[in-house]
Every structure is written in structure tokens, then in C-alpha cells.
Amino acid sequence: MKLWDVSRTLSNDLAEWPGDVPFHFKLTKEISKGDSVNLGAISMSVHDGTHADARFHFETDGETIEKAALEIYMGRAAVVDLAEAFSRSSEKHLITTEDL
After folding, report:
1. Could you confirm whether 57 is annotated as catalytic?
2. What does the alpha-carbon distance between residue 9 and residue 13 come to, in Å, rounded to a whole number?
3. Of 36, 56, 76, 81, whose CB count within 10 A is highest?
4. How many CB atoms lie within 10 A of CB 40?
5. Are 39 and 28 in contact (CB under 8 A)?
6. Of 79, 80, 52, 49, which is closest to residue 64 (Cα–Cα)?
7. pLDDT at 58
């Protein structure tokens, strides 16, 4: 079986689900500003970037992600590369059926 890593790189340009907390990274300490180290902080929703939704996301009594068997997230899939289509736009937007 061939495995494909479809993880998206987290960045401040990543489109968030409407109304959700967007991903944000900022440097909190910088050597170039006299600090002894470079440090960073992130804020984000667990729904940002590449992720798996547990049944709890859709059902009040559904299982949470730490109880989900990894096998249910593995199997046949179609990988669609929209990098070129999205590279033509500098604005964030959700993938639509028209994009596909």
C-alpha cells in the first residue's frame, strides 16, 4: 500500500472554517532584538489545517478523537492537488465544488 502525506503546512495564510479561530504564529522573543533565544507562540483551533474529525464533532454522545481507532482514517482515497489554482489568489477561501 502506498501512503500519501496530505498534511498542509500551518501558516498565518491558512483559511479557517468560517467563524473559527484562525491559525496565528508570532515570535515572542527574538535574538535580533536582544533576546537570548528565538521563541514563538501559536494560537489556533483544533479544526485548523490537516486534521481528523471524531464522531464527537458531529454527535453529542460521539467518541472523542483519542478513542478513535486509527484504522478508520486509513483506506482508499482520491488526492486532488489544488495548489496551482490557489496560488493565483492571495485571498483566503474555502474549497468549493467549483474548485474541484
Report:
1. yes
2. 10
3. 56
4. 10
5. yes
6. 52
7. 92
The one catalytic residue among 24, 47, 51, 57: 57
- How do residues 37-88 score in pLDDT, each as one tens digit? 999 999 998 888 888 888 999 999 999 999 988 888 788 878 888 888 777 7
Q: Inform me whether the pLDDT recorded for 13 exceeds 80.
A: yes
CA 89 to chain centroid:
19
DSSP for the chain? ------PPPP-TTPPPPTTSPPPEEEEEE-GGGT-SS-EEEEE--TTSSS----GGGT-TTPPPGGGS-GGGG-S-------HHHHHT--S-----TTT-
